[in-house]
Amino acid sequence: MIEIPHDLLAAIGGVPKPPTEVVIQATDVNKWFGRLHVLKDVSMTVKRQEVVVIIGASGSGKTTFIRCVNHLEKIQSGRIFVNGHLIGYREANGKLVEDKESNIAKQRQEIGMVFQRFNLFPHKTALENIIEAPVQVRKTPSAEATDMGKALLARVGLAAKADVYPSQLSGGQQQRVAIARALAMKPALMLFDEPTSALDPEMIGEVLEVMKELAREGMTMIVVTHEMGFAREVADRVLMMDEGQIIEEGTPEHFFTSPQHERTKSFLSKIL
Amino acid sequence: MGSVAAQRPDQKSHRQSVPRPALVRVGALLLAVLVVAGCAGTRRVSSYQYDWNIFFESVFRPSPMIVNGIWLTVSIAIVAQIIGVVLGVFAALGRMAKSLPFKLVANFYIWLFRGTPLLVQISFIYFGLGVTKLYAWPTLDILGVSIPGAIQAGIFALGVNEGAYMAEIVRAGIISIDLGQMEAAKSLGMTYALGMRRIVLPQAARVIVPPLGNEFNNMLKNTSLLVAIAVTELYVTFSYLNGSGPTSFHPFELFLAAAVWYLVLTTIWTVIQAWIESKLGKGTGRQEQIGLWDRLTGFRLGASSAGLGQAH
User: CB contact, 8 Å: B67 with chain A?
Assistant: First the structure.
């Protein structure tokens, strides 16, 4: 293959996404809840600026998996690396030993997470929700954090809601604040755990719009969702999980046109 | 406490006909008590000579001795309650800790101090530790104020005892907060301690304050148990006045006056508690507050707009 100089490519506007830089590398991840084997040898990689959508029935392990990526759940075997750092553990004599809490906290600063139930801090205004972690964790001066917070609120279309408490916001607005809150830590990647499942139908669009914008700006994302329209529009890859395993992987088009696995076909027929 | 049912606007006019100021009502209540007491006195043909001057002097023109007793009661109660809250938070966190030693220490502490009488704890801590010289409770000078050993021991005993009760109140507050709050805090890079301090405990405080109000109310009155170690707080002062000097053997007037003073202190606390709760209510969408009169009496006669303030 002919090597084209990178700046030349850039000049003609044809720089592809940097294809090789791996952000998430998971290998043979296993997790049990008691006797229930919820993740079975799950392996996957996500490259920088990639958007990966995980679909699957409830109980298939998709939410559990992305919770393992920022160590909200422990794993029993396997490795998850984010930006080359082993998440949540250190290796001692070939065994996984849970890492120090302060190290785990540091790793999580690079990993934004958006929850199904928003989990905004109800005793803080929208703006206070956003600047809490930058000020308390990153020690950003509060004036600087406030400016950034207001810019983030504007970005998710809620500039007017800075001083409003979460209880006074609609579900869609709360979720957009939650996205802004995660972005305030300037994460290297974002995890979305069914971000629209708790929303009324008419509010789903506004949240997806913010997420699409993020994807277009080049954010690396893993999104657990049933929104196939979103997947079709922005996902680079779709993973289908079933009973703790990734059973099928491909482009969104592949899932729309020629899904292979029986479980995938029956699942898609229910949600499309 | 009064019902928290939503206030209906159509009842407002009716409520406004009820006189508001709490003082008028407290005065009326007091008068009724005196009348009943007076009747009882005449019917039973007692030889007891009422000297109402002693009562009114003690309440409206308290001697420096009484003022000192009040001051001691209030300051001991406040310091002991603060110690109790701090110990309670740590004991609650200890109980919920994953590590077994923390759990054991916290459980032992709570078991010990809730399982033995406060009066025994006070006496043991002051006399028991003192006589064996395990700790002799020497007078300490703090910020130029000389604090006798008995007062230190009293504060210590009340505070440590209180912590054992506060532990369960704090724990109830913490477990009432959705687990997603700590997860969100952690996902933003906070440690457990920071998430607890910035996110969970401030929310738990809203749940903790009402029972904390009960606790401090009890604390104000429990200071009277320090009679056991001769701390001259409010009760001991009146007890002393009853035992010697020009006011001796006027227990009716003196202890009635003491009761009035305790009522004044607990009433002031009720007002402060209402203010704290209205401050903590922000962002909850639960703006309705229980009116002051309702708080004082437990009845919901007055309107709930006693000026306690809306959060925003």
Answer: no
